[in-house]
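Input protein
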Amino acid sequence: MHSDLYAVEDGNKLGKYADDTYIIIPAVNVDSRSAELRNITDLASNNNLKLNLTKSQEIIIDDKARISAPAKIPELQNVQMLKILGVIFTNELSVSLHVQSVITSCAQKLYALHVLQAHGLCESALQTVFSEQS
């Protein structure tokens, strides 16, 4: 089904990965958002699938030069951050939250290994634990 999915408007881009679909719509095409959503919903319906709108989200990248944000699509939850293929993006197109998350996760894993080592876990066992956590 993914191979049948194309953007409705020139300039819009579709990203597809497994059962996730991402639509990137530039500001000049902002009015095509509903048509793109309808296209995906129709394709799903035609293939006996249902788009789960409760899991669908919209993020509007903040543009300081824009006077007003576009109207929200009522069917979609508008979010300030979005995780795309494991990377956290914010509406300011920042990945600082992602970097912070990765550093926190690494620190937690290192601390856990330190505690295990302090309690006498041998080096080969520590390597096994580390390889399972990575």
About this structure: The chain has three helices and six strands. Residues 95-134 form one domain.
